[in-house]
């Protein structure tokens, strides 16, 4: 078997909205509206430039029900570009594709093989001893172990399993669709498992390789860092290398600016600027949507808590001055004031007030009011892991935020 390369990608989610931008940064949202298409363009050109013999797409090409048929037509045009370069494409449908009403109507070029959803199929690549086994999702909610019915490896071939799955123990924030175990895949006899569904790049096993390439384009601040696809090099019937290539058009980032001991606003903004510069450098020249968190013990904690809107305006101005491709997705505060009482107040009064304020977080009536208000908010949100995470974060941080605000109000103008 001669050496060859192929490209493994998954979770393109074409035309998926970049969550968290439209309301806060409409200009940025408009500029990056076509980010998923640009990432697909990069994937196609990479496959051609690297002389890949075929491309594997392990599910979720689209983001559920197509909001715009142009996304489907765009995918068709990119597959035609690969056809012109003589590159076959093998595709399985994931949970998002399965609920798509337009997928079956797309007139795909002859180089695209869409694997059946009825039962596992095996597809051979012309001119190569390669057998690709796979099955598409018949509907969105697939709870059965699809891999169990995959055929045995073809003797004398490099065998690839193409599977959209949440491996047991690796589901993360993703629904547990088509569950199976890593050990089951390892023992199946294939040389490479090309997985999709989990959006974080992971090489779970070698010999055989079991790989999640991650999604092609990050969609929210929960999907930070480089996103792209994996080029797999095969030599003498074995995987010689798996190379991740960043293909995303827009990068999401999360950074922390520590303000311990910073006592004036100018110094705080200087430290924030340095943090954003570092985040920009790590974005690899791509537009960056940044979630910034301020932490540490500083006398500015109360002033920033009371003047959050003004602070955000200042940070957004800093971002605009650094780069036209940097947007502040969210600014959050985790600051605490110095433990010593303010000397501007009568020590006896200050001590008693501070003791009362410090007790807020442990006060039963405060906790009751917090939980009641939180229940009202949660009732308006869909039930999900994210809603539960949101509630846990509020419960954990509400007391500290309340004490910070209370101290700022007591200190008055001195805190501002």
Structure explained in plain terms:
The protein is an alpha/beta fold and 416 residues long. It is 33% helix and 22% strand. The chain has eleven helices and 15 strands. Strands 4-3-2-1-11-12 form a six-stranded mixed sheet, with helices on one face. The chain has a six-stranded mixed sheet with strand order 5-6-7-8-10-9. The chain has a three-stranded parallel sheet with strand order 13-14-15, sandwiched between helices. Helix 6 packs across helix 8 and helix 9 runs antiparallel to helix 11. The protein is elongated.
In sequence order, what are the helices and strands, one letter per element? EHHEHEHEEEEHEEEEEEHEHHEHHH
Average of pLDDT: 85
Total number of strands: 15
What does the radius of gyration come to? 26 Å
What summary fits the major beta sheet? 6 strands, mixed
Percent of sequence in beta strands:
15-25%
GO molecular function: exonuclease activity
InterPro entries: Calcineurin-like_PHP (IPR004843), DNA_Repair-Maintenance_Comp (IPR050535), Metallo-depent_PP-like (IPR029052), Mre11_N (IPR041796), Pesterase_YhaO (IPR014576)
Keywords: Exonuclease, Hydrolase, Nuclease
Protein name: Exonuclease SbcCD subunit D
Write a brief structural summary.
Residues 5-200 form the Calcineurin-like phosphoesterase domain. This protein is of the alpha/beta class and 416 residues long.
């Amino acid at each position: 078997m001669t050496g060859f390369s192929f490209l493994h990608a998954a979770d393109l989610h074409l035309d998926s909205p970049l969550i968290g931008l439209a309301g806060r940064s409409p200009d940025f949202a408009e500029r990056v509206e076509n980010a998923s298409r640009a990432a697909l363009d990069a994937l196609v050109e990479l496959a051609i430039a690297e002389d890949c013999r075929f491309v594997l797409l392990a599910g979720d090409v689209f983001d559920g029900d197509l909001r715009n048929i142009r996304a489907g037509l765009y995918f068709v045009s990119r597959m035609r570009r690969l056809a012109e370069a003589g590159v076959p494409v093998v595709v399985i449908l994931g949970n998002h594709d399965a609920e798509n009403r337009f997928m079956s109507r797309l007139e795909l070029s002859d180089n695209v093989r869409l694997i059946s959803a009825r039962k596992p199929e095996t597809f051979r690549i012309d001119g190569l001893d390669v057998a690709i086994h796979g099955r598409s999702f018949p509907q969105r909610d697939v709870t059965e172990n699809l891999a169990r019915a995959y055929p045995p490896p073809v003797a004398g071939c490099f065998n690839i399993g193409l599977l959209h799955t949440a491996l047991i123990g690796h589901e993360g924030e993703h629904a547990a669709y088509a569950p199976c175990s890593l050990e089951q895949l390892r023992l199946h006899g294939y040389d490479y498992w090309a997985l999709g569904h989990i959006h974080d790049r992971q090489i779970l096993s070698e010999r055989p390789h079991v790989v999640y390439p991650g999604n092609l384009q990050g969609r929210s601040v929960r999907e930070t860092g480089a996103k792209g696809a994996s080029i797999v090099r095969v030599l003498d019937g074995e995987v010689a290398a798996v190379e991740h290539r960043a293909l995303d058009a827009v990068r999401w980032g999360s950074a922390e600016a520590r303000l311990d001991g910073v006592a004036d606003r100018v110094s705080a903004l200087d430290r924030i600027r340095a943090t954003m510069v570092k985040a920009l450098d790590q974005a690899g020249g791509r537009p960056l949507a940044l979630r910034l968190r301020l932490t540490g013990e500083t006398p500015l904690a109360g002033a920033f808590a009371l003047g959050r809107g003004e602070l955000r305006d200042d940070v957004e101005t800093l971002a605009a001055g650094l780069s036209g491709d940097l947007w502040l997705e969210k600014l959050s505060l985790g600051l605490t004031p110095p433990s010593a009482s303010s000397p501007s107040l009568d020590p006896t009064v200050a001590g008693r007030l501070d003791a009362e304020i410090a007790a807020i977080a442990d006060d039963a009536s405060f906790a009751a009011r917090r939980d009641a208000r939180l229940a009202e908010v949660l009732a308006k949100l869909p039930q999900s892991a994210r809603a539960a995470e949101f509630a846990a974060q509020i419960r954990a941080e509400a007391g500290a935020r309340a004490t910070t605000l209370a101290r700022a109000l007591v200190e008055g103008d001195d805190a501002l």
